[in-house]
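Pasting as-is:
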Amino acid sequence: MRKKITVVGAGMVGGTLAQRLAERNYADVVLVDIVEGMPQGKALDIAESALIYGYDTDLVGTNGYEETAGSDLVVITSGLARKPGMSRDDLLFKNMEIVKGVVEQIVARSPEAILILVSNPLDAMAQLAFEVSKFPKNRVLGMAGTLDSARFATFIARELNVSIKDVHAFVLGGHGDTMVPLSRYSTVAGVPITELIPADRLKEIEDRARNGGIEIVNLLKTGSAYYAPSAATLEMVDAIVLDQKRILPCAVYLEGEYGIDGLFVGVPVKLGANGVEQIFEITLTDDEKAQLHNSAAAVKELVDKLKSHA
């Protein structure tokens, strides 16, 4: 029996993800949005590509949630996108009500689903979804480190003029300015990039990775990134649907790991059919640990704001 995946939010990230999922041909897709006609039109447009790309994915676009019933996996992309001059924090209260309402609708119809949060501010929205859904922690996670690591890897490959296929980049922490690019654990063909790139230049690349999202926002001027975010989300969906046991950095609920308790923070995890199947604790230097805790503190500040606003 084919899997069923719901994508909530038919904007640029959600619509592009629905297209990528359809082309995977391993699950049927429901695309949900409150804008009348948008999810229906995008679903039909994607479906009309089926002959050319050779897939049999069943696509449904809807403004409601009845069609989502029995979903195995739900990706939540809904919410306002960042605009120039707007931080992820500015989105907090505006997107809180949107995500809360979406999660309540999903839980009522798909109580066994795995939730992947893409809405910003990512870590706080994942925490909100976890608390609203009351799902076990292995079934709620956020897309963050996969995207941040992909951006970091892109900059490394371009700096060294090497194939991106030989680059493995590693980013931990919250999805924002306090994220922690781990150059010591990032490699090219197994060689640490700390041995390939001078320290001062490496810091510039790390800073660019931290600001990768806002760089694109400033260039686009009327929107935010969607090709890379949808691709990063697809990597996580692949790992779960195909039970790949991939080790990917994702925002997950920590209960003492890395000295962090009761918060969603980006760390390396094993993703498989059961969602988050294992959290990997790697050895950090005192400086790396301090950066990670600083990032967690920024997430906690947002979570505390959510609780005070509830």
